[in-house]
Amino acid sequence: MSKIVVLAAAAGGYVLGAKAGRERYEQIRINALQLWRNRRVQKTTSQAADLLKDKVPEVKAHMSDAAREVFDKVKSGQAKPDATASSYGMPSHTAPSDTADWVDDPGTNR
Q: H helices within 37-84, ranges in order?
């Protein structure tokens, strides 16, 4: 085939693909907007935002207390260089020993 035929075929494929892609994009966009405007979705979103607003002061106070405790330990020299997160009351997670440990077990809450 000549270069012109190949270029024409590529251009035609691009135009048809772009048109189909644009139509699919518009379909997805419309469905997403309809979902977002759904009364139940808006109600749930509002409830989640209210819950977060209520919890922010509590989380902020907890984080401030934990940071102050760590700062005081470091300043007083009580903190060891090899201190772990669990020594400050934070959860400690260990790395998996092999890749089989990376697969989530449906019976666990990881």
A: 39-76
Q: In the chain, count H helices and then E strands.
A: 2, 0
Residue 81 lies in a domain: no
Residue 32 lies in a domain: yes
Residue type, 36: W
Element (H, E) at 24: helix 3-36
3-state secondary structure of 29: helix
- Look at residue 4 and tell me if it is in a domain: yes
Quote the CA–CA distance of 41 and 59 in Å, as a whole number: 26
The Cα–Cα gap between 72 and 68 comes to: 6
User: For 48-99, what is each residue's pLDDT tens digit?
Assistant: 999 989 899 988 999 999 998 888 888 887 766 555 555 556 555 555 555 4
Q: Is 26 a residue whose pLDDT tops 50?
A: yes
Q: Looking at residue 46, what is its pLDDT?
A: 93
pLDDT at 23 > cutoff 90: no
